[in-house]
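Lab meeting minutes (informal)
Scribe: AK
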Amino acid sequence: MAGALRYPIRGRYISGSKTFLKKSCGALRRRPRIKMTTDFQQILQMGQQVQARVSQLQSELGQRTVSSSSGGGMVTVTADGRGKIRSVSIDPSVVDRADVEMLEDLVLAAVNEAQARAAALYEEEMRKLSGGLPLPFNFPGL
């Protein structure tokens, strides 16, 4: 038998085809070969689908807005879903040349809160996108 394949089973070889044989309870039985089901084209397609969904999510987040206020509504900041500040509204009664520090603090607090809300919105949308599973990597540009 030239070219026949031989497989070791408990110290001896058995000739056969590409099907593995296993000795169990004194009898030989066939064990199917393990097929490699990982298809790299499918993995690439899945990656492209995720990338498309992330791009769509980025554009949607750019159009959604979150708002935050400080000082009882005297300073209001609006940011988009990516955290970029879109507008700042200051009540004229807060503007006082003698107390600029208070105004700075109010603006800073409102900006920080708006950006925190935008980050929470982003994380929530990414959790929906990934099916609740934490993604092991960061997407560039997000």
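Next up, CB showed the second protein from the same session:
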Amino acid sequence: MTAFRLSVLILLILIVLLQVRLWSAEGGLVELRHLHEQVAQLEQKVEQQRAENRRLREKIHALKRSPEAVEALARRELGMLRADEHFIRLIVLPSSASVRGAENPDPAKTGETPSSDPATGHGPAEDLAEGHD
């Protein structure tokens, strides 16, 4: 074998080894593709966060400028009422046909009191009577 052929063979072996490392090793093209996918996912999350930030900024702006927005938020989030308003709760009772076929647990055994609301401690009659002087 001549020196020229030996040097070509060594160069070919080096090229093959470098190609294998490029395609399969750490820091290779496969990892690069995964990193590009991660970047795309993170960019999407960043855009979603920007949209959420815009929405929150608009909400803050409305709350600072508009008493109606504050009132709407207090009604929706805190369940607040005006001084001249009364809260009325409507309770829908099941029909007698559905009660006969259903297996309803005994409230005394479960510890529940169906006639009272756990948040207020009032029963339906008390809810209706509230605020009526």
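CB comment: Residues 85-133 form one domain.
No objections, moving on.
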